[in-house]
Specification:
Number of domains: 1
Order of helices and strands: HHHHHHEHHHEHHHH
Helix content: over 70%
Largest sheet: 2 strands, antiparallel
Number of helices: 13
Distance between the termini: 17 Å
Structural class: mainly alpha
Strand order of the largest sheet: 1-2
Strand content: under 5%
Number of strands: 2
């Protein structure tokens, strides 16, 4: 069994065991898992050499789609609401990606940022539809046909979130090793050569963009269901920055890096906010600076290097 696989198993067991021993950890673990899934989406684009500063718009759209669907059909199952969020991210990714992927580098990043800020402004202005800056509350829906109390509901959501994390991580890994994933990575190294061998760089990046948007839409749905509330802040540029922070922190070499980064981010933020109120952003910034110097390719790359070193010594 490879070291990354062992690490995945350990992280999955920790995500289930710690909240069982300390119930107050359920929500942080659910949100951390959601951040990890969103960071997986960002990592797909980073592999191609592109960074989106506006992918929070897909999280936000997924969250609001859940809110609208839950209000329209109050008895709609929470599992179906997750599919609604992912589907909304996919559809929006198809539309937005059809023209955004024509651009590269800073133009790609800033166009995504501009679109996300348009969505943020629209959600804030149309109060009678979106609830404005107050957002929309989401009543706790049944899970798999069962009406659950809050504690049981969070337990089921945590189990499902961990399962979704494992599935999405496996899918991203398979995608990265496929022809489509290799073509996407080739955009970063030599896009012109990719076109010469008959592979459309536009199509390769568009498919990757849609996959990325779908993961972010699913992440937004988990956030919405876990918090019972969606606000325009979900689509603000700061949230997009946090997703990029998580992806860089964990590293993009292996899907497990997204969840390592999400775990570090969520718990540094949690404890820094508790003990250094008003200065937790400073702590997060220092952590990122330290990671950049100590592990430029992310924490997962640092673990891989340690694993290779131990194998070499043996």
């Amino acid at each position: 069994m490879s070291r990354p696989t062992q690490l995945v198993i350990v992280l999955a067991l920790l995500a289930l065991a710690l909240p069982a021993a300390l119930p107050w950890l359920k929500t942080p673990f659910i949100l951390g898992t959601a951040f990890g899934i969103a960071a997986l989406g960002i990592s797909i684009l980073i592999v191609s050499g592109q960074i989106s500063f506006g992918h929070a718009m897909f999280m936000c759209s997924g969250g609001y789609a859940v809110a609208f669907a839950a209000r329209q059909w109050p008895q709609l199952d929470s599992a179906l609401l997750l599919l609604v969020g992912a589907g909304t991210g996919l559809l929006l990714g198809v539309v937005v990606g059809s023209f955004v992927v024509r651009y590269r580098a800073i133009f790609f990043g800033m166009l995504n940022l501009a679109l996300s800020m348009v969505l943020y402004a629209v959600l804030g202005k149309f109060f009678h539809i979106t609830g404005g800056t107050d957002g929309l509350r989401i009543e706790r829906a049944p899970f798999f046909g069962m009406a659950l109390d809050r504690d049981t509901f969070e337990t089921v959501l945590l189990l499902l979130s961990v399962l979704l994390a494992l599935i999405t991580g496996w899918l991203v890994r398979r995608y990265q090793r496929s022809v489509a994933g290799q073509a996407l990575a080739a955009i970063k190294t030599n896009e012109t050569r990719l076109e010469y061998v008959g592979i459309s760089a536009y199509k390769a990046l568009w498919v990757g963009y849609i996959f990325s948007a779908t993961l972010c839409g699913l992440s937004g749905a988990i956030f919405a269901i876990a918090q019972g509330l969606v606000t325009p802040e979900m689509g603000y540029w700061v949230r997009s920055g946090e997703i990029i922070f998580v992806a860089i922190l964990g590293g993009v070499g292996h899907p497990v890096g997204a969840f390592i980064g999400a775990g570090i981010f969520e718990f540094v933020k949690l404890f820094a906010a508790a003990y250094l109120t008003g200065a937790w952003q400073l702590v997060l910034g220092c952590v990122l600076i330290a990671i950049v110097f100590l592990a430029p390719r992310g924490v997962s790359a640092l673990l891989d290097a340690a694993s290779e070193k131990s194998r070499g010594q043996s």
